[in-house]
């Protein structure tokens, strides 16, 4: 089985862009990387609408099935999945007040090798009926964090813009593989000194760090 990496987050958190960037870079290193697109988005494009409550479970299971199928293909080293059933479970709770999908989604997520949660530091961009608002994005993030923490599921939050974001994700993947996959040192990916705990998987620690960074930036303080 290939190493499975899932990117979690609500709308406009950069999951698709990061998925493509990671697959492109990993291929350049000689690793066979396979992309798993977001099934929910594909379904919405085909149907021309958002799913109803009774359709959510099937969509979540299909996302899991596709990811498992790609991971089992011969010759695939790494799978980068642009979402997981957890995101659909969050939408089900948010839109339909239905928490029934969390248990199955978390059970599947436990078998994932690396869970990366997209930070909320990217600007929200409208995208037709596929995206609602920054408030929805924040609510999805809150729900996913809550359930991952409650289940004791390790995850790492990925922050940064452009190449800095890609490099941070590559460092996380590289640690799982015992390889150096990045093209730059951590301190070269941004204008400030690398965070000492930037790469830990403690979500509370990460959240405090990111909140402090926002507060300093709002006061014009650019120190690390």
From TrEMBL:
Domain NadR/Ttd14 AAA: residue ranges: 5-165
InterPro entries, per database record: NAD_biosynth-regulator, NadR/Ttd14_AAA_dom, P-loop_NTPase
Any Pfam family the entry gives: AAA_28
SUPFAM superfamilies per the UniProt record, alphabetical: P-loop containing nucleoside triphosphate hydrolases (SSF52540)
Entries under Gene3D superfamilies matching the protein: P-loop containing nucleotide triphosphate hydrolases (3.40.50.300)
Name of the protein: AAA family ATPase
């Amino acid at each position: 089985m290939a190493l499975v990496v899932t990117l979690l987050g609500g709308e406009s958190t950069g999951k698709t862009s990061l998925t493509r960037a990671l697959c492109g870079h990993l291929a350049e290193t000689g690793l066979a990387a396979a992309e798993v697109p977001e099934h929910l988005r594909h379904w919405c494009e085909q149907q021309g609408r958002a799913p109803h409550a009774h359709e959510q479970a099937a969509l979540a299971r299909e996302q899991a099935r596709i990811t498992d199928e790609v991971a089992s293909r011969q010759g695939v080293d790494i799978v980068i999945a642009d979402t997981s059933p957890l995101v659909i479970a969050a939408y089900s709770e948010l839109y339909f007040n239905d928490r029934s999908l969390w248990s199955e989604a978390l059970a599947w997520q436990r078998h994932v090798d690396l869970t990366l949660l997209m930070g909320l530091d990217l600007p929200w961009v409208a995208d037709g009926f596929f995206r609602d608002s920054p408030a929805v994005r924040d609510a999805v993030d809150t729900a996913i964090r809550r359930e991952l923490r409650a289940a004791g599921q390790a995850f790492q939050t990925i922050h940064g813009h452009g190449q800095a974001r890609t490099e941070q994700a590559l460092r996380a993947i590289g640690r799982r593989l015992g390889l150096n996959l990045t093209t730059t040192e951590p301190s070269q990916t941004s204008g400030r000194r690398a965070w000492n705990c930037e790469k830990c998987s403690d979500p509370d620690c990460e959240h405090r760090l990111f909140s402090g960074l926002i507060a300093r930036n709002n006061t014009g303080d650019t120190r690390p």
